[in-house]
Structure formats: structure tokens, C-alpha cells
Specification:
Blueprint lengths: L1 E3 L6 E4 L5 E3 L3 H9 L13 H11 L5 H13 L5 H10 L9 H8 L4 H10 L9 H10 L5 H7 L7 H8 L6 H12 L8 H6 L4 H10 L5 H6 L1 H7 L3 H10 L7 H10 L4 H12 L5 E10 L16 H15 E9 L3 E3 L6 H8 L9 H11 L4 E6 L14 E5 L13 E4 L4 H12 L4
Parallel strand pairs: 4-5, 4-7, 7-8, 8-9
Antiparallel strand pairs: 1-9, 2-3, 5-6
Helix pairs in contact: 1-2, 3-4, 3-5, 4-5, 4-6, 5-7, 7-9, 16-17, 16-18, 18-19
């Protein structure tokens, strides 16, 4: 999730806006490329293919056990899907890394479709026989999934789950599972009752959504992602509000609610109530926290090509979260200048950050210098894509730099605690670190 760099590193490379960046080890380069990575998606400054190529180049330069651990961390803590699969695929290329492939692959495959996704990644540059370690890992992962999960992900495409089954020669746990696999091979699995199936069956979309809401067939993320679709077909508002009021908000970060509200503003009040409920029971961070949010131009880029969420959603969402769980909080934004944000909470804090000033260059060094001179706090938390225009000084005390992008070069090493990626684990990582010891 995060890594403290205690070495006296030399400046060499530069960020895309020209600030001196740190020359960091291959392991740290791999971490920053992977842990906030949506593979083959382009960034504001970098092409997604370049990012995948950099990961492939770095894997053999990092010890096998560290690459394997990074793949598990990316899947289990950061909830990434494709980047961990690519790490294991690259491990399979190198004799020094192959011994850990089967164990790691079996662990990181946690959804039925990831079986076929891995084979697609393996064959991205042309079909070739699967290695013995890969077959062993796929065979160990296949029995994890029941008929519902297999039917949900047995989609039309160049590689199907039945193909993977034939390739890896998995063994069923019992006769019941053997019967399910026979139905998979024959194409006679029971059709799952998912929202995707309901809407693709030709049924009236409004009626389909309303049935799914009444029967509570939508998980929290599916509900939030489809609010705009429900609004467009005129779904009964009382059903939507009831679903938002009763949804399970465990492990749903505020940025999901912020993104949903952009496209369904008429339900913003209910979304805000659900968002605040999801952080209400979180243990407080003691002392005073300063949150510094990057609002430069590159932060308005989407998180991925197909995503409606922007990096600002992630940044504002983390700011909203920190505003709720820290005992004392001051929020600042920065681009060309440092601006203190009014003391708001919830969606009002999002709005206050967004209008604090124009989106221009990334003068992070200037912002940190001013805070060092004028503010005293227990911790400074910066949320940014790191593409600073100027040199970034050390924080005056504890400093955390949360990176919501995955560029090759960045800032914030040395005395900074550098966190690549963002998830619900960010705050718990900070809390756990401070409850043990801060290493300077």
C-alpha cells in the first residue's frame, strides 16, 4: 500500500511539468506504476501502453517474492484486477520468478472472469502454450467459483471459461462441481439473475430496474453506478431513495458518492446522507490534520477511459473522508497558489474545493513551503498526481503524499511517507503507522 523511502536519493529525472523528481529503485518504480494502475488506460501525460511496458521491464529487476507480494497487495488491498494479472504474466517469463507463479496466480484470481482475462493477457502478443506453473495456478483457482459465478462471466469472446478449463485441466472438488463444469462445457449453465442479464433480456428497463430494487438485487456499487440510467428511464423515486437509505456502505469510499451525484443531482441529499453514514463509525485520527488537495489541470482527467469518475473525485472524496475522521482539520487546495478552503463537510466541501481557484499548473513546492512557514499540525496529507512544476521541500513534521495516478516520475520521497494508490486502506495505513512509530 505504501512505502517509506529513507535513502538519501539523488535527483535525476523530472516530472512532466519539469520539477526535479527522485531517481528511485526498480522496486519503488514498480510500486508506483502498479498500485494506482488501470492497465492500458492512458493518463493525462502518458499512454497506457507505455505504463504496461514499463511494468514488464521492471519485473525482472525486482526480487520474485517482492513482485508476488505486490501482486497480492494490488489485488487484495487496492482492489486492482488487471495490473496484478500482468505482474504474474511477466513473472512467468523469467526463470528467476517462475517458482512463485502458480501460488500467486491462484490467490489473485478472485472473480470468474479473471480466469479468461489472465489467458488473454498471456496471449496478448500471440498464442503460445501455457507454462506448467500457469496451468497449475489456473487449475487451483477454477474450483473457487460456483455455477452462478461461472454463468455470470461465461461471456461471448475470444477466450471463454470453458477454454480455460480445457487448457488447465482443473479437477472438481466433488460430483456436484463436476456436474456444473459439464454444464459449462455444454453451454447449459443456469442463467444468473443479475442487473446486466435483466436489462439485456429485452424487458422494459424501468420495470427491470424497479424489480431489482424491490428484490434488493443491486449491490452498493451497482446502485451508485446506475443512478443516471434509472433517472433516464423514470424509475420510481421512492424505490431509489429507499435503496440509498438501506444500502450497505461498508468499504464504499466517498468518491463513489461524489461521482454518482454529478450525474444524478436530484438525489444528492440522499447520497450525502449515505456517504456520511459510511464514515460515521470510523475511529478518529488524533490531533490536527492539514489536507492539501491538488486542483491542477491534470487532476480533471478521468480515472480510466471508460470511467465517468475523475481524479478530482478521488481527491475530493479522500478530503471529505479526512474531514470526517480527523479531530481537527484544515483543508487547502493548490494549483498556481495555495488557497485555504472554507470549513465545510460532505458535498459542500467538494464544492468549496472545486471553486477555490482556477485549474492551472502544479505548484506543490510553493504550497508546502507556505504551509511549513504558517501552519502547525500533527500531519500534512497531500492528495495529488505528483506532476509538480517546482521542487518539493520536506514537510515540517509528518508528511504523507497520496498519489492518485501512476506516472513514472514523481516527487515526495525522502522524509515524506509516499503512498501510491488510493483505497479505504489509505487511512487505516496512516493510523496503523502512527500507532506504532513514525520513523524519521
Amino acid at each position: 500500500m505504501a512505502r517509506l523511502n529513507l535513502l538519501n536519493l539523488n535527483f535525476g529525472a523530472r516530472t512532466h511539468e519539469g520539477a526535479p523528481a527522485r531517481n528511485i529503485s526498480p522496486e519503488l518504480q514498480l510500486r508506483r506504476s502498479v498500485l494506482a494502475c488501470l492497465l492500458w488506460e492512458s493518463q493525462f501525460y502518458e499512454d497506457g501502453v507505455e505504463i504496461a511496458g514499463r511494468i514488464a521491464e521492471l519485473v525482472p529487476k525486482v526480487a520474485a517474492e517482492k513482485v508476488a507480494a505486490m501482486a497480492v497487495e494490488g489485488r487484495e488491498r487496492m482492489k486492482l484486477r488487471h495490473a496484478p494479472l500482468l505482474l504474474v504474466r511477466e513473472m512467468a517469463r523469467h526463470k528467476t520468478h517462475r517458482a512463485l507463479v502458480s501460488e500467486t496466480l491462484a490467490r489473485i484470481i478472485q472473480r470468474g472472469d479473471e480466469l479468461a482475462e489472465f489467458v488473454a493477457i498471456y496471449w496478448k502478443d500471440g498464442r503460445m502454450p501455457l507454462s506448467g506453473q500457469v496451468k497449475k495456478g489456473l487449475a487451483a483457482a477454477f474450483p473457487k467459483f460456483d455455477e452462478y459465478q461461472l454463468a455470470k462471466y461465461e461471456r461471448v469472446g475470444p477466450i471463454k471459461l470453458r477454454d480455460v478449463l480445457f487448457l488447465c485441466h482443473a479437477k472438481p472438488r466433488d460430483q456436484a462441481q463436476a456436474d456444473v463444469w459439464k454444464r459449462l462445457v455444454s453451454g447449459s449453465l443456469t442463467t444468473p439473475d443479475t442487473w446486466e442479464v435483466a436489462l439485456s433480456s429485452g424487458a422494459d428497463k424501468r420495470e427491470a430496474w424497479e424489480r431489482l430494487l424491490r428484490e434488493q438485487k443491486l449491490g452498493a456499487l451497482a446502485l451508485l453506478r446506475n443512478l443516471r440510467n434509472m433517472r433516464e428511464v423514470g424509475v420510481d423515486e421512492s424505490l431509489v431513495l429507499s435503496a440509498l437509505g438501506s444500502m450497505s456502505t461498508a468499504r464504499v469510499l466517498p468518491f463513489r458518492f461524489l461521482a454518482a451525484a454529478r450525474y444524478a443531482p436530484q438525489w444528492e441529499e440522499a447520497l450525502e446522507q449515505a456517504m456520511l453514514k459510511c464514515v460515521a463509525e470510523t475511529e478518529k485520527l488524533p490531533g490536527k490534520t492539514i489536507v492539501l488537495v491538488d486542483v491542477s489541470g491534470s487532476m480533471t482527467a478521468p480515472l480510466s477511459r471508460r470511467s465517468e469518475m475523475q481524479r478530482t473525485d478521488a481527491a475530493y472524496g479522500l478530503a471529505v473522508l479526512l474531514r470526517e475522521i480527523a479531530e481537527k482539520v484544515a483543508v487547502y487546495s493548490f494549483s498556481d497558489n495555495l488557497v485555504e478552503v472554507p470549513a465545510r463537510r460532505g458535498f459542500a466541501l467538494r464544492d468549496a474545493i472545486d471553486v477555490s481557484h482556477r485549474h492551472n499548473s502544479t505548484q506543490l513546492g510553493n504550497a508546502v513551503e507556505k504551509l511549513n512557514a504558517n501552519e502547525k499540525c500533527d500531519r500534512l496529507i497531500v492528495i495529488t498526481d505528483e506532476q509538480a512544476h517546482d521542487r518539493v521541500p520536506a514537510p515540517d513534521g509528518k508528511g504523507y503524499l497520496i498519489n492518485v495516478a501512476r506516472y513514472k516520475n514523481g516527487v515526495g520521497y525522502g522524509k515524506w511517507m509516499h503512498i501510491d494508490g488510493w483505497s479505504e486502506a489509505v487511512i487505516e495505513y496512516i493510523r496503523a503507522l502512527e500507532q506504532t512509530a513514525w520513523i524519521n
